Amino acid sequence: MRIVELTEETRSNLLENLLKRSPNSYGEYEQTVNxxxxxxxxxxxxxxxxxxxxxDHCRLTADHIRVTKEEIRQAYETxxxxxxxxxxxxxxxxxxxxxxQMHNSWFLPxxxxxxxxQKLTPIEISGVYVPGGKAAYPSSVLxxxxxxxxxxxxxxxxTTPPDASGKVNPGTLVAADIAGxxxxxxxxxxxxxxxxxxxxxxxxKVDKITGPGNIFVALAKKACFGYVSIDSIAGPSEILVxxxxxxxxxxxxxxxxSQAEHDELASAILITTSRKLAGQVSKEVDGFVAKLSRRExxxxxxxxxxxxxxxxxxxQAIAAVNEIASEHLEILTANPFEIMxxxxxxxxxxxxxxxxxxxxxxxxxxxxxxxxxxxARFFSPLNVDDFLxxxxxxxxxxxxxxxxxxxxxxxxxxxxxxxxxxxxxxRFED
Length: 430
Prior knowledge:
This protein is α/β, with parallel strands linked by helices. The chain contains 16 helices and 14 strands.
């Protein structure tokens, strides 16, 4: 991996380079995505089936688009019992974590006859997109479904692409069953997003779409936002490791590569105050890459977006961490809990040498759907609040309004909204 001094110039160049990976930079695909959305919006099932045949080489009908109970049963015969048990353990951890995020409606009565409050209501229908083929991730099923379940969403559907024979990845089906979801449709790509956003004869219109996907899925979610809520427009995966001289270079190298293997656009960055560690990690990376199965992808990722940055001190390193605002941040220092309060921008923070990033991807419980491309500066991980609507509650008695009516009328008149003022005044006419 390249080793460079952390300066204002290198930090600026790094940030500019990382931003090239944003879905906002893929404008050349937007017209294609918009055409697909328009076809499904207008043609509904007929268009969805035609696009499925075009892109997934699978012929579907309204009778076969929904996964059957028999297909779910068969999936269990394909997936090993050991993996089923792991999925169940992970589901328990994920649900327990997200249940802790729940809060209640509240109402605040005043002695003057006012009642103010906030009513929480789960959305009615949530749609989850799950990739298929080489990028089939049962973990994403759990991470998308279980927060919605914890929030109380009454109907959750899944769309996922079929293979040419009309089958769906068995791991996806088993994970969905463990999460308590049986309404699964065989549809992928931008056409599946459009189907959930606008509805077809077979697939219901949903209130929110969550889940990862390729660039066409990401751009389709972006285009449908406003007709439907979405979680985020996800970019390629990222890891940033903040380490000092106490870090184990072998652990650091392994953790960097855990994200580099995702995609040629994935980013793996080490920021360290130790030049010795930088050299050791670079050597360990070379050793691992030679043995790992996805070495071609890893090599491209590291060539494009892999960096080891050597900082003058920890203060400079932390400043760079906050500016990069990485999706995943590992803190491998002598006292990681002392560093953690100084971190303002990160999707998920992993503290200590036994808290490697895959722990969060699969098992610990916090959500692995995280803000990417610097959006951790203003976005949060997927959570229960994403599936809840907050409605304000306002009730005033006559006596309470009597005390405030002149102030409200003045405010409205200053904004030139005389009908607003009149709506208060008529309640106190002689």
